[in-house]
Design a protein that fits this description.
By secondary structure, this protein is α/β, with parallel strands linked by helices. 38% of the residues lie in helices and 19% in strands. It contains twelve helices and nine strands. The structure holds S-adenosylmethionine (SAM).
Length: 271
Protein backbone atom coordinates (compact mmCIF):
# COMPACT_ATOMS: atom_id res chain seq x y z
CA UNK A 1 0.00 0.00 0.00
CA UNK A 2 1.46 3.39 -0.94
CA UNK A 3 0.24 6.76 0.33
CA UNK A 4 -2.83 8.58 -0.98
CA UNK A 5 -3.44 12.30 -0.32
CA UNK A 6 -5.67 11.67 2.75
CA UNK A 7 -2.97 9.41 4.26
CA UNK A 8 -0.28 12.08 3.88
CA UNK A 9 -2.55 14.73 5.39
CA UNK A 10 -3.45 12.41 8.27
CA UNK A 11 0.20 11.51 9.00
CA UNK A 12 1.12 15.20 9.12
CA UNK A 13 -1.90 16.10 11.21
CA UNK A 14 -1.48 13.27 13.75
CA UNK A 15 2.11 14.37 14.47
CA UNK A 16 1.47 18.10 14.30
CA UNK A 17 3.96 18.36 11.42
CA UNK A 18 4.00 20.80 8.54
CA UNK A 19 6.19 20.31 5.46
CA UNK A 20 9.51 22.17 5.69
CA UNK A 21 10.28 24.42 2.73
CA UNK A 22 13.93 24.64 3.72
CA UNK A 23 14.24 20.85 3.43
CA UNK A 24 12.39 20.76 0.10
CA UNK A 25 9.53 18.71 1.52
CA UNK A 26 6.96 18.04 -1.20
CA UNK A 27 5.46 14.63 -0.53
CA UNK A 28 4.12 12.48 -3.36
CA UNK A 29 0.46 11.61 -2.80
CA UNK A 30 -0.10 9.43 -5.85
CA UNK A 31 0.43 5.64 -5.92
CA UNK A 32 0.77 5.58 -9.74
CA UNK A 33 3.68 8.01 -9.68
CA UNK A 34 5.72 6.17 -7.05
CA UNK A 35 5.06 2.79 -8.71
CA UNK A 36 6.19 4.21 -12.04
CA UNK A 37 9.45 5.41 -10.43
CA UNK A 38 10.00 1.97 -8.85
CA UNK A 39 9.42 0.31 -12.28
CA UNK A 40 11.92 2.66 -13.95
CA UNK A 41 14.52 1.66 -11.34
CA UNK A 42 14.31 -1.96 -12.59
CA UNK A 43 14.84 -3.42 -9.12
CA UNK A 44 13.52 -6.61 -7.55
CA UNK A 45 14.28 -9.30 -4.97
CA UNK A 46 18.02 -9.52 -4.21
CA UNK A 47 18.67 -5.89 -5.23
CA UNK A 48 19.49 -3.00 -2.94
CA UNK A 49 17.88 0.41 -3.42
CA UNK A 50 19.14 3.53 -1.66
CA UNK A 51 16.58 6.28 -1.28
CA UNK A 52 17.51 9.85 -0.34
CA UNK A 53 14.83 11.78 1.52
CA UNK A 54 12.03 9.24 2.10
CA UNK A 55 9.84 11.87 3.76
CA UNK A 56 6.71 10.05 4.91
CA UNK A 57 7.55 6.92 2.92
CA UNK A 58 5.52 7.35 -0.29
CA UNK A 59 8.26 6.13 -2.63
CA UNK A 60 9.87 3.90 0.01
CA UNK A 61 6.71 1.75 0.17
CA UNK A 62 6.68 1.36 -3.62
CA UNK A 63 10.37 0.40 -3.61
CA UNK A 64 9.78 -2.17 -0.85
CA UNK A 65 6.85 -3.60 -2.86
CA UNK A 66 9.33 -4.67 -5.58
CA UNK A 67 10.95 -7.07 -3.09
CA UNK A 68 14.27 -5.17 -3.11
CA UNK A 69 16.07 -4.27 0.13
CA UNK A 70 15.72 -0.54 0.73
CA UNK A 71 17.83 1.82 2.83
CA UNK A 72 16.32 5.29 3.10
CA UNK A 73 18.43 8.25 4.31
CA UNK A 74 16.36 11.05 5.87
CA UNK A 75 17.75 14.24 7.39
CA UNK A 76 14.63 15.44 9.25
CA UNK A 77 14.52 13.93 12.74
CA UNK A 78 10.81 14.73 13.06
CA UNK A 79 10.02 12.30 10.24
CA UNK A 80 11.99 9.33 11.59
CA UNK A 81 9.31 8.01 13.98
CA UNK A 82 6.33 8.25 11.57
CA UNK A 83 8.50 6.81 8.83
CA UNK A 84 9.53 3.81 10.91
CA UNK A 85 5.89 3.20 11.77
CA UNK A 86 4.82 3.37 8.12
CA UNK A 87 7.62 1.01 7.05
CA UNK A 88 7.16 -1.56 9.80
CA UNK A 89 7.10 -5.09 8.40
CA UNK A 90 8.59 -4.05 5.03
CA UNK A 91 12.09 -4.63 3.61
CA UNK A 92 12.96 -0.95 4.13
CA UNK A 93 15.13 0.52 6.87
CA UNK A 94 15.69 4.15 7.76
CA UNK A 95 19.01 5.89 8.40
CA UNK A 96 18.86 9.31 10.02
CA UNK A 97 21.49 11.37 8.18
CA UNK A 98 22.44 13.97 5.62
CA UNK A 99 22.93 12.65 2.08
CA UNK A 100 25.79 15.11 1.63
CA UNK A 101 27.85 13.68 4.49
CA UNK A 102 26.51 10.23 5.36
CA UNK A 103 28.95 7.30 5.01
CA UNK A 104 27.62 5.41 1.97
CA UNK A 105 30.40 2.79 2.07
CA UNK A 106 29.18 1.76 5.52
CA UNK A 107 25.51 1.78 4.44
CA UNK A 108 26.18 -0.28 1.33
CA UNK A 109 28.35 -2.85 3.11
CA UNK A 110 30.08 -3.80 -0.15
CA UNK A 111 26.84 -4.29 -2.14
CA UNK A 112 26.01 -2.72 -5.50
CA UNK A 113 22.93 -0.53 -5.38
CA UNK A 114 20.52 1.62 -7.33
CA UNK A 115 19.71 5.10 -6.09
CA UNK A 116 16.03 6.01 -6.37
CA UNK A 117 14.79 9.31 -5.01
CA UNK A 118 12.48 12.25 -5.17
CA UNK A 119 15.32 14.64 -4.38
CA UNK A 120 14.97 17.76 -2.23
CA UNK A 121 15.30 20.63 -4.73
CA UNK A 122 17.89 22.58 -2.71
CA UNK A 123 20.54 19.82 -2.71
CA UNK A 124 19.65 17.77 -5.78
CA UNK A 125 22.73 18.62 -7.87
CA UNK A 126 25.30 18.25 -5.04
CA UNK A 127 23.73 14.90 -4.04
CA UNK A 128 23.88 13.56 -7.61
CA UNK A 129 27.48 14.75 -8.05
CA UNK A 130 28.52 13.26 -4.71
CA UNK A 131 27.06 9.88 -5.66
CA UNK A 132 28.68 9.91 -9.11
CA UNK A 133 32.07 11.04 -7.84
CA UNK A 134 32.33 9.17 -4.56
CA UNK A 135 30.05 6.12 -4.58
CA UNK A 136 30.95 3.82 -7.50
CA UNK A 137 28.87 0.99 -5.96
CA UNK A 138 25.78 2.93 -7.03
CA UNK A 139 25.50 1.94 -10.67
CA UNK A 140 22.22 3.61 -11.63
CA UNK A 141 20.11 6.52 -10.47
CA UNK A 142 16.43 7.23 -11.05
CA UNK A 143 15.68 10.65 -9.64
CA UNK A 144 12.82 13.10 -9.58
CA UNK A 145 14.07 16.70 -9.81
CA UNK A 146 12.91 20.14 -10.99
CA UNK A 147 12.51 20.11 -14.77
CA UNK A 148 15.24 22.71 -15.27
CA UNK A 149 17.72 20.70 -13.17
CA UNK A 150 16.85 17.42 -14.89
CA UNK A 151 17.34 18.92 -18.33
CA UNK A 152 20.68 20.39 -17.26
CA UNK A 153 21.97 17.07 -15.90
CA UNK A 154 21.53 15.29 -19.25
CA UNK A 155 21.97 18.19 -21.72
CA UNK A 156 24.14 17.80 -24.81
CA UNK A 157 26.72 20.38 -25.98
CA UNK A 158 25.32 23.40 -27.81
CA UNK A 159 21.88 23.06 -26.23
CA UNK A 160 20.55 25.84 -24.03
CA UNK A 161 20.53 23.70 -20.88
CA UNK A 162 24.16 22.54 -21.31
CA UNK A 163 26.59 23.55 -18.57
CA UNK A 164 29.55 22.40 -16.48
CA UNK A 165 27.33 19.94 -14.62
CA UNK A 166 26.16 18.32 -17.90
CA UNK A 167 29.76 17.76 -19.03
CA UNK A 168 30.70 16.29 -15.63
CA UNK A 169 27.68 13.97 -15.58
CA UNK A 170 28.63 12.77 -19.10
CA UNK A 171 32.03 11.72 -17.70
CA UNK A 172 30.35 9.28 -15.30
CA UNK A 173 27.11 8.19 -16.89
CA UNK A 174 24.71 8.31 -19.77
CA UNK A 175 21.34 9.71 -18.97
CA UNK A 176 17.96 10.79 -20.23
CA UNK A 177 14.79 12.45 -19.04
CA UNK A 178 12.38 9.50 -18.84
CA UNK A 179 9.18 11.12 -17.61
CA UNK A 180 7.36 14.21 -16.44
CA UNK A 181 5.55 14.55 -13.12
CA UNK A 182 2.73 17.09 -12.71
CA UNK A 183 2.84 19.39 -9.68
CA UNK A 184 -0.66 18.18 -8.72
CA UNK A 185 0.67 14.86 -7.30
CA UNK A 186 2.54 16.61 -4.45
CA UNK A 187 1.57 17.82 -0.98
CA UNK A 188 2.18 20.74 -0.88
CA UNK A 189 1.99 21.51 -4.60
CA UNK A 190 5.31 23.02 -5.83
CA UNK A 191 5.47 26.01 -8.19
CA UNK A 192 7.80 24.22 -10.61
CA UNK A 193 7.42 21.18 -12.87
CA UNK A 194 9.31 17.98 -12.10
CA UNK A 195 10.89 15.36 -14.33
CA UNK A 196 12.27 11.88 -13.89
CA UNK A 197 15.88 11.33 -14.92
CA UNK A 198 17.63 8.00 -15.29
CA UNK A 199 21.43 7.87 -15.16
CA UNK A 200 23.40 4.69 -15.81
CA UNK A 201 27.03 4.70 -14.77
CA UNK A 202 29.71 3.90 -17.34
CA UNK A 203 33.51 3.93 -17.36
CA UNK A 204 35.00 7.32 -18.26
CA UNK A 205 34.95 7.66 -22.07
CA UNK A 206 38.13 6.70 -24.01
CA UNK A 207 38.86 10.41 -24.64
CA UNK A 208 39.36 10.84 -20.86
CA UNK A 209 41.53 7.76 -20.28
CA UNK A 210 44.63 8.51 -18.21
CA UNK A 211 43.45 12.07 -17.61
CA UNK A 212 43.34 13.45 -14.08
CA UNK A 213 39.62 14.03 -13.49
CA UNK A 214 40.18 16.91 -11.03
CA UNK A 215 42.24 18.70 -13.69
CA UNK A 216 39.55 18.06 -16.32
CA UNK A 217 36.71 19.23 -14.05
CA UNK A 218 38.71 22.32 -13.05
CA UNK A 219 39.08 23.24 -16.72
CA UNK A 220 35.38 22.67 -17.41
CA UNK A 221 34.44 24.87 -14.44
CA UNK A 222 36.81 27.62 -15.54
CA UNK A 223 35.54 27.40 -19.13
CA UNK A 224 31.94 27.86 -18.00
CA UNK A 225 32.77 30.64 -15.53
CA UNK A 226 31.88 33.11 -18.32
CA UNK A 227 29.88 30.96 -20.70
CA UNK A 228 29.34 33.63 -23.36
CA UNK A 229 33.05 34.45 -23.65
CA UNK A 230 35.55 32.83 -26.01
CA UNK A 231 37.57 30.03 -24.47
CA UNK A 232 40.89 31.62 -25.39
CA UNK A 233 39.87 34.46 -23.08
CA UNK A 234 38.33 32.45 -20.19
CA UNK A 235 41.23 29.97 -20.25
CA UNK A 236 43.98 32.57 -20.78
CA UNK A 237 46.84 31.88 -18.43
CA UNK A 238 46.17 28.13 -18.59
CA UNK A 239 46.23 27.45 -22.33
CA UNK A 240 48.09 29.20 -25.14
CA UNK A 241 47.11 29.58 -28.81
CA UNK A 242 49.50 26.68 -29.53
CA UNK A 243 47.69 24.53 -26.97
CA UNK A 244 44.35 25.20 -28.67
CA UNK A 245 45.92 24.31 -32.03
CA UNK A 246 47.44 21.11 -30.61
CA UNK A 247 43.98 20.10 -29.31
CA UNK A 248 42.39 21.04 -32.67
CA UNK A 249 39.95 23.37 -30.89
CA UNK A 250 39.28 26.87 -32.18
CA UNK A 251 39.99 29.27 -29.29
CA UNK A 252 37.12 31.46 -30.45
CA UNK A 253 34.59 28.84 -29.45
CA UNK A 254 32.61 29.08 -26.20
CA UNK A 255 32.44 26.46 -23.45
CA UNK A 256 28.76 25.81 -24.19
CA UNK A 257 29.70 24.34 -27.61
CA UNK A 258 32.38 21.92 -26.35
CA UNK A 259 31.65 18.23 -25.84
CA UNK A 260 33.28 16.32 -22.99
CA UNK A 261 35.70 14.76 -25.52
CA UNK A 262 36.76 18.24 -26.65
CA UNK A 263 37.27 19.42 -23.06
CA UNK A 264 39.41 16.30 -22.57
CA UNK A 265 41.58 17.23 -25.60
CA UNK A 266 42.14 20.66 -24.11
CA UNK A 267 42.85 19.26 -20.61
CA UNK A 268 45.63 17.13 -22.12
CA UNK A 269 47.46 20.35 -23.02
CA UNK A 270 47.49 21.57 -19.39
CA UNK A 271 50.87 21.49 -17.75
N1 LIG B 1 10.45 10.77 -0.92
C1 LIG B 1 9.35 11.53 -0.36
C2 LIG B 1 8.20 11.59 -1.33
O1 LIG B 1 8.44 11.34 -2.52
O2 LIG B 1 7.09 11.86 -0.91
C3 LIG B 1 9.77 12.92 0.06
C4 LIG B 1 10.48 13.74 -0.98
S1 LIG B 1 10.80 15.42 -0.52
C5 LIG B 1 10.89 16.17 -2.13
C6 LIG B 1 12.51 15.47 -0.05
C7 LIG B 1 12.90 14.77 1.23
O3 LIG B 1 14.31 14.87 1.40
C8 LIG B 1 12.30 15.33 2.49
O4 LIG B 1 11.81 14.30 3.29
C9 LIG B 1 13.46 16.05 3.20
O5 LIG B 1 13.34 16.09 4.61
C10 LIG B 1 14.62 15.18 2.76
N2 LIG B 1 15.95 15.85 2.75
C11 LIG B 1 16.23 17.15 2.52
N3 LIG B 1 17.56 17.36 2.53
C12 LIG B 1 18.14 16.15 2.78
C13 LIG B 1 19.49 15.72 2.92
N4 LIG B 1 20.53 16.57 2.79
N5 LIG B 1 19.73 14.40 3.19
C14 LIG B 1 18.68 13.53 3.32
N6 LIG B 1 17.39 13.89 3.19
C15 LIG B 1 17.11 15.18 2.91
Amino acid sequence: MTHSRPTILRLLDERGLSPSRALGQNFVADPNTVRKIARLAEIGPGDLAIEIGPGLGSLTLALAETGADVVAVEIDRHLIAPLEEVLEGTSARVVHGDALTVNFTEILGGRQAALVANLPYNVSVPVVMRILEEVPEISSLVIMVQREVGERLVAKASSEAYGAVSAKVAYFAHGAVVGRVPAAVFVPKPKVESVLVRLVRHDPPPSCEGLNSAKLFGLIKQGFSQRRKMLRSTLRGQLSEQDFAAASIDGQRRAESLTLDEFASLARQLR
